[in-house]
Hints:
Elements: E1 6-9, H1 15-28, E2 32-36, H2 42-53, E3 58-62, H3 67-75, E4 80-82, H4 88-96, E5 100-102, E6 104-105, H5 108-116, E7 122-124, H6 127-139, E8 148-151, H7 159-165, E9 169-172, H8 183-204
Parallel strand pairs: 1-2, 1-9, 2-3, 3-4, 4-5, 6-7, 7-8, 8-9
Helix pairs in contact: 1-2, 1-8, 6-7, 7-8
Amino acid sequence: MSARNIIAILRGITPSDAASAAEALVTAGITTLEVPLNSPDPFGSIAAMSEAVGDRATVGAGTVLTTADVARVSEAGGTLVVSPDCNPEVIRATRAMGMQSWPGFYTPTEAFTALRSGATGLKLFPGALAGPSGLKAMRAVLPQGTLVYAVGGAGPDNFGAWLTAGADGFGIGTALYTPGLAVPEIAARAAQIVAAYDAARGAEE
């Protein structure tokens, strides 16, 4: 199985837990890790994770709203910028620094604005509101090859429906991680998510 298109959203993680959590996730097969900037000392966590697994994983930040934050992500060793909104300035700054840009979108207008600004891929958020049917409708107009990850409302129970609708991957938050979770529990949750993802992908193929 090639790399899985799953972004682990580690909201609330602290630098002291970051390296061990990252190691557990990468070992389980999840190799894209996001620390939302509304976590405690997010840049410290990004630095710790980049040092621990940066050679085997893509590490970066979520909830990135400003170009100043983009620069700080880069300084911390991150190579991924995920946003809840579509801000052309943030997208362009991210790409100019050689990092991946994954802005949030909910409408075709936002999707095309993001793509014109150079986005690496798109984050359909909140996915629960659009649903697979909403994504399927938007897929009819999005350029061929546009990467779309469903975030919020996508998980093991409905991976298959999302994939059928045209999702390329997923952002997974509380199903994978909540603050204070022990490393063995993170590993167990990650294994379950990976198994469900692999099964859904296999069924699709």
